[in-house]
Please model this.
Amino acid sequence: MKKSIMAFLMLSISFGSVQAQTKQTATDLPNISVIGNFLGTHTKNETSFDVKEIEFSFQHYLYPSVKADIFAALHKEDSGERHFELEEGYITFSDLLGVIIPDSDLNLGIGALVGKKLLNVGKINPLHPEQRDFVNRPIVIRQFLGEEEGLSPEGAQLSYLLPFDFFSQLEMGYWTASSHEEEIGEEHEESSIEYSNRIFNTRLWNSFTIDNSKELEVGFSYVIGNVGAAIDTDKQTIYGMDITYTHELSTNQELKFQSELYQALYGDDGEERASQSGGFLSGFMKLNDYYQTGIRYGFLGKHGDEGLVTNQWSILLTRQLTDTSKFKIQYNTGENVDNTLSAQFIFGMGPHSHVLQ
Model:
C-alpha cells in the first residue's frame, strides 16, 4: 500500500510540474518524461501480458557543465507484485576543473559522476529497455550483470579524455553494491552473479571515424566485485571486450554489427572460484523510417565443470509507429532455453522520448 501511494504521489508531482512549466521560467523546473514498456510473452508452458514498467525521468542542468539525471520506475515483478524504485540518480560533471576553479581557462578533460548509475560495462548494461535494439538482454549479460535492470550500484566515477587524434576515454569507478540475487528464470536455471560490498570498475572506450558514414567503436571493461574481501575466493572478476560497427547507408537506412565477449571468475555460496565465458554477436538494420530488423546469437559456457552450455538465437522485427513509439516482435530459440515469442510496445512522452527515435 505504501509503495502504491508513493507511485501515485510521483505521478501527481510529474503532471503538476508539467502544468507549472507554463507559469515559470524554463530553468526553474526539470525536463520530465514518462516511458511505458508493455510486454507480452508466449512459451510452451505459459502466456502472459504485463505492463512491465512505467519509467519517470527528471533531467536538469544545475550549472553549464553539471547535469542531474533521475530515473525512477514502477516495475512488475515475476511474482505479480509492483515495486517503485530508483533505477538511476546521478550528477554528471563534464568539466570537473571548471566547477572547482570557475575562472580557469584550462580544460584537462577530466569529468566525474556521483550517484546511482548503471555500470559502464560494455555497451548493453548501461541501457534502459527503451534504448535497446532487442526486447531482452543477451544471456551472458543477464548472467554476469543481472537479470532485467542490470548492475546499478552507488558511488563515484572519474573519466579522462585521452589526448589522441581519435575519441578515447578512460573511466574508473568505485561503488557500493546491494547484496541480492536475481534469477535468470526460464532462460537459464542458474542464478546470476551476486555482488556485495564494494565494486571497482574501469573501462576504456575508443571511437574511430572511418568516414562520414562509418564508425568503429572498441571498448575494454574490467570489474572486481567485493573488492575489499580478504581472500580472493570471495571476489568476482569480469573481463570484457565490446566492438560496434555502424554504417549509415542513407538518410533513413543504417546497418549495425555489435559483439561483446566476457570472461568471469567467481564462486557460488563461498565455493572455490571457477571461470565462465560468454558473449554475443548481433546484426541490426534500419530498413527505412518504419521498419528495423535484427538477428542475435548469444552463448554462455559452463561455470567451471558445472552447469550446461547455453546458446540462444534471437530474431527481431520492429515497427516504428511514431518518433516516440514502437512495436517489437522477437522470437528466441536455442539450446537449453525455452522457445519464446515476445511482443513489446514502448512509448514515450517528454524530452527523454528521443531515445525511441
Notes: The radius of gyration is 21 Å. The first strand starts at residue 31 and ends at 42.
